[in-house]
Specification:
There is one protein chain. The chain has two domains: 173 residues, HUPs (Rossmann fold), CATH 3.40.50.620; 92 residues, Pantoate-beta-alanine ligase, C-terminal domain (Pantoate--beta-alanine Ligase, Chain: A,domain 2), CATH 3.30.1300.10. The protein contains ten helices and nine strands. Helix 2 links the parallel strand 2 and strand 3. Helix 6 crosses helix 7 and helix 9 packs antiparallel against helix 10. The model has no long low-confidence stretch (mean pLDDT 97).
Length: 283
């Protein structure tokens, strides 16, 4: 039988709740989200439950990672449905602060990440993004003080940025990546998929097929440029406007010169109509 999670919306209430958990010697896993929860998020929660005694899920649509031209105001917000899903998973606590709590009047301190945040992928097209992500995640780690934090591999560059930040700033949290959850046709689950029309939804699966095709060619020792060009052509021919389609070092996200260089990751970002989709796979 599911029990509704405790919901807190102020920092003092959160600290009291966390202190109570710590008093019982509990380990804590944090799952940061922006709501509009789907099965991919539930996989993060399931992994969190395997790693810690208690699970806290944050729901906060972070304005600082959206540019003025992006979809902050229209980003899907599904509070009642989210609460039902988290209750069904027996999540212990939901941290649901308002913007004024996270960024009170006079807020003037931000984290500016480098390293994997400046490798010319998402940062090339959304230069504001990782500063907003690093600042809000840094705040979440300071507020919740988790032992573990679970992030999806779908946002792979973000995962590497958060891992680096946690290490560099000695934040005392182990950041864990969770495998991307996909629809039957391979499309990565994303809150933004609701923006796709029925026809676009069918086309969207091309991203995964193109990555798989290029990965096969790379695994066979094929020429990097030719393998990636073939995938990119497949994506644009389907009607996408391509931002990037690249293979990078899986650890550093640096460009690679040879398929013998080590673990690789194919990463893609492309627009279908007004919807921007990102994805990645291991090679």
């Amino acid at each position: 039988m599911s029990v509704s999670p405790t919901i807190v919306r102020t920092v003092p209430a959160l600290r009291r709740a966390v202190d109570r958990l710590r008093a019982r010697k509990a380990t804590i896993a944090l799952v940061p989200t922006m709501g509009a929860l789907h099965d991919g998020h539930m996989a993060l929660v399931a992994l969190a439950k395997r790693r810690a005694n208690k699970v806290i899920v944050s729901i906060f649509v972070n304005p600082t990672q959206f540019a003025p031209s992006e979809d902050f105001s229209s980003y899907p917000r599904t509070w009642k449905a989210d609460l039902g899903k988290l209750a069904a998973e027996n999540v212990d606590l939901i941290w649901n602060p308002g913007v004024e709590t996270m960024y009170p009047q006079g807020f003037a301190t931000r984290i500016t990440p480098e390293g994997p945040a400046t490798v010319g992928l998402e940062d090339r097209f959304r230069p504001h993004f990782f500063g907003g992500v690093a600042t809000v995640v840094g705040k979440l780690f300071a507020q919740v003080r988790p032992d573990f934090a679970i992030f999806g591999e779908k946002d792979f560059q973000q995962l590497r940025v958060v891992e680096r930040m946690a290490r560099d700033l000695d934040l005392g949290v182990k950041v864990i990546g969770s495998k991307t959850v996909r629809e039957r046709d391979g499309l990565a689950m994303s809150s933004r998929n609701v923006y796709l029309s029925g026809e676009q939804r069918v086309v969207a699966a091309v991203l995964y097929r193109a990555m798989k095709q290029s990965a096969v060619r790379l695994q066979a020792g094929g020429d990097i440029q030719a393998a990636m060009a073939g995938g990119a052509e497949m994506i644009t021919a389907a009607g996408f406007e391509l931002d990037y389609f690249e293979v990078r070092d899986a650890d550093t996200l640096a460009p690679i010169a040879s398929v013998k260089d080590g673990p690789m990751r194919i990463l893609v970002a492309a627009r279908l109509g007004t919807t921007r989709l990102i994805d990645n796979i291991a090679v």
